[in-house]
Amino acid sequence: MKKAERSELADRDNALFEAGIKLGALYHQFTGAPVNLDTIESLEKAIEKSISLQPYVQDIKVNINKKMVQQKLNKFGYCELEGKML
Q: Which sequence spans correspond to the domains of the chain?
């Protein structure tokens, strides 16, 4: 492709790309993390702070489904965070 044929990414395209990066990071970095009912809030805050460091993030809110965590607790009192819990 010749330089004259290249076009810069539109703001919309850049925003969509960045949103995908954030969702992928959230999913792949945090799923599998050990969690229980006592650590849900701190894990939510850690995820929010981590993702908020990335470019273009203006606001982020993470909610982990407490009912799903409760149902998945193992005999040691914790479970692994799953994507569907977010």
A: 34-86
